[in-house]
Specification:
This protein has 301 residues and is α/β, with parallel strands linked by helices. It has helices spanning 22-29, 52-57, 79-88, 101-113, 123-133, 140-151, 161-166, 168-179, 188-192, 207-220, 225-232, 235-244, 253-262, 264-274; strands at residues 5-6, 12-16, 62-63, 69-71, 93-98, 156-160. The strands form 2 sheets. A 4-stranded parallel sheet has the order 4-2-5-6, sandwiched between helices. It has a two-stranded antiparallel sheet with strand order 1-3. The chain is globular.
Length: 301
Amino acid sequence: MNNSKVLRLPGFIHVGPPRTGTTWLHEALKGHIGLPKVKETRFFDSHYDRGVEWYCDRFDDYPADVPAGEMGPTYFSNAVARERIKLHIPDCKIIVTFREPASRLYSMYRLTRAGRHPAEDTFEGYWRYKIDCGGDLCSYAVQLERWQAAFGKSRVLVRFYDDLNSDPQGYLDSVCDFIGAHRVALDSAKVGDAKVYSAPVAARSSAIGWRSFAALYWASRHGARPLIELGRRTALGKMLRRKFVEDFQPLSAEEADEIRAMTLPDTEELERMTGRDLSSWKPRAHRKFDDGHVEARSQTG
């Protein structure tokens, strides 16, 4: 082992929320900074009883002058996880990436369908349950304020998923600058994959497909995602996807509007806190024309 390498606590954590590109960011930074062997250690919420030494052992050795961190999307709305991070890494740099609530919820729904029988849950039933439970869907601004209060505004980097899609290199550069890492030049393959990885979901008519992709989903949650992604690009992987994967319809404008109406107060507060124009996150009846007037049509019109 190189004696210049040491095990130590990370200096940054991307705390989520889920389905905002943390897998993409982990893959883009891999080999350039210190990262855990498995993308999500879940130390601060699920494995805290294993101790800090166990947590440090999740990371590969890396030079002392190279920053280290991890992706922890389950930490975003978890007050206990936030307190534990503050206790052990008081100067931790925090990254949050926000995604339009309706599309993020739809992405989460697709992900959950890979781990259960396909006959369970419609999207409407799923999102209404999530809305009723609250959580990070409706509390971007509230949770951001809590992270800023714990670590200071200067140590909390706010990014947006739209920027990852429109300018992945710029998004990555801003993260590297924030964590003190050398900028990483994206190759064409990674630029092409600048999106949240979609979980495979079995077609309703295929029990074999459901079992196959439920197994893949389990494996992806236990560190096998790189191998799975490689397999998906092979001829066999593409054939299996065509045979077994359910073809999801796009999120309807009416359903998106209903979700956006429920999250509107939080959206407007996040808009105020960040100075970001989030008009596209609002129901159509609340979007602004270029002259600043509010659109007065119905949500379904």
